[in-house]
Amino acid sequence: MEEPSELKSRIFGALPPDLFRVFSGPARWFYADLLEQIDRTVFGDFPTVISRHEMTSAIRDFIDRRGYEVQLEDDATGQSSSELKARIAYRRLLDTGW
User: In the chain, where does DSSP find H-type helix?
Assistant: First the structure.
């Protein structure tokens, strides 16, 4: 019989350890909506390599269209521009393995 740690590593071993961390804070609904939007509009049916500029532009457009007034983790004031929020969100997605 397999040890629990062996089974655990097979289930979660290939996933980045912080992958679901974006869903644990106050901005969890923002990130859930953002990831769905990125999947639909940026990657679509034929995923390709996306530049940092293209991704932050897509995130900024998402924030502007949705009118999100979300305070992101690295944004202490909550009053930043959509460009800054896009860069913060992009960095957070990268840091957590997305």
Answer: 4-12, 28-37, 52-66, 82-95
